[in-house]
Amino acid sequence: MIEGFFNCSIMARAQKKGIAEIHIHNLRDYTTDKYRRVDDYPFGGCAGMVMKIEPIARCISALKEERHYDEIIFTTPDGEQFDQPMANTLSMKENLMILCGHFKGIDYRIREHFITKEISIGDYVLTGGELAAAVITDSIVRIIPGVISDEQSALSDSFQDNLLAPPVYTRPAEYNGWKVPDILLSGHEAKIREWEFQQSLERTQKLRPDLLKDK
Ligand code: SAH
Q: Residue 160's pLDDT band (boundaries 50, 70, 90)?
C-alpha cells in the first residue's frame, strides 16, 4: 500500500540521494504459524479483531537488535495530535520506527512495553495506520536539509513560525485580466518580504486565529 508512495516523487529522490532510508516490514514475516496470522479475537468478546502481540514483539525486537531507535511510534487515533513542531523534532532524530495498527488496534501490552510515542494524524478513524505512517514520514523527510531543492522553501511553509504561508504566484503576470500583486513584480526584495509577512499574518488571523493564540 505505501511502497508505491515512498517510491515516487520527492520521497524517492530523498532515498536515491541517500538522505533518508525507508524500510517497510511486513508483520506476517514474523509469524510462525502456517496461516501467518497477525490478528485474533479480542478477550472480553467485543466486536472486531485485534493484532496479536507475538509477531509485533518479534518484529520490534529483531529491528532493535540491528540499531538503536530514538522513538518507536504507534499510529493511533488516541495519540498525541501530529503537527509541524512534532515533525521538526522528529526530523532531527536518527532512526524512527513507526508501527501501523489495523482492525480494532493492537494488543495493549505492545503499547505499554515497546512504544515510546503515540501519534494521531487527526480526529477521524482510518482502517489502518499505513496512511498515517506515510503522512508522518513524508512531513519528516521533506524538511531534512537537501530533500527539497530550496531549503528555505520548507522554512517558509505554513505552520513554521505558527503562521500560514502567504499566497504564491507564477507566470504569466496577467491571466484573463487577473493580475499578480504589483509588489511581487517590483523587484524590491525587502518590501516583498514585508508584504509576504503581512499576508501571512492577515491570512492566519482570518483563517486560523487559534495559531496566533499559542504564541
Ligand atoms: N479501535 C481504534 C481504532 C482502530 S483503527 C480506536 O477506536 O481508537 C485501526 C488502526 O488504524 C489503528 O490501530 C491505527 O494504527 C490506525 N489509525 C486509524 N485512525 C488513525 C488516526 N487518526 N491517526 C493515526 N492512526 C490511525
A: confident
